[in-house]
Amino acid sequence: MTTNPATSPDVRRRRDPEATRAAILEAAEELFLKLGPADTPTSRIARQAGVTKSLIHHHFGSKDDLWDEVKRRHFGQYYEAQRTMLASSQGTAEMLRDSLVGYFRFLQQDPHAVRFMSWRFVEEGDDACKTQEDELFELGIERVREAQDKGELRADLEPISIIKSFLAMAMHWFQSKPLLCQMLGPEADVDALEERYLDDVVKIFLDGVRPRDKQPD
Could you tell me which residues come within 8 angstroms of residue 143 by beta carbon, excluding any fewer than 6 positions away? Predict the structure, then answer.
């Protein structure tokens, strides 16, 4: 049986570029998550997406460019929300709390975020999200210093240490969720445990970074 070239999957994909991009991104995301970017051949992405390798190069360039696009999809929404919040806020302890909760919600709402962020640190080379990440760090450091100048946060702590610590505390839940659920209460509702963990982390973190005379009664 011969295939009509005019109705082949590749030709149909060319006629619907948005569907083609979506299929490629979906296949790439699944395979990058499972295998890692380095061990994911472009040919396998093409096969899973139902396109030719030439269409991947046409829409995204190289496999590295495709990996960058997948990362942007995961990081972009968080970046926009955090940047807006930091740019429009003043440096306060409450702002820091909102940043912690915002990062936790980002990880909570995107089940693949932790895995992809882990691959970011494993892969060498320039990272598509690094410029955005650096911008958030610069804004965050500026706001933390403002809060320290106001006496709302301890002045003996480096701003970057404060930021890195809350990122790690939020990330830890999602990296070790099964173990933490077992330790906190294996029979309890997982969603309830997740919220309890977040509440505890907020209290522990804020108590640690506030001056002693600013501690809650």
Answer: 86, 89, 90, 91, 95, 96
Residues 47 and 78 in one domain: no
Q: What is the dihedral of CA 195, 204, 120, 75, to 10 degrees?
A: 50
Structure-derived torsion over alpha carbons of residues 186, 190, 194, 195, reported in degrees to the nearest 10: -110
Name the domain count of the chain.
Answer: 2
97-147 residue pLDDT tens: 999 999 999 999 887 888 877 777 666 555 667 888 899 999 999 999 999
CA distance 207 to 216: 8
Q: Could you tell me the residue range of the domain that residue 30 belongs to?
A: 17-61
Number of neighbours of residue 81 by Cβ within 10 angstroms: 14
Q: What is the dihedral of CA 102, 108, 114, 117, to 10 degrees?
A: -30
Tokens 């696009």 belong to which residue? Answer: 69
**Residues 51, 130 within the same domain:** no
With beta carbons less than 8 A apart as the criterion, state whether 132 and 71 touch: no
Note whether 7 and 93 are within 8 A (CB): no
How far is the C-alpha of 217 from the C-alpha of 213, rounded, in Å?
A: 10
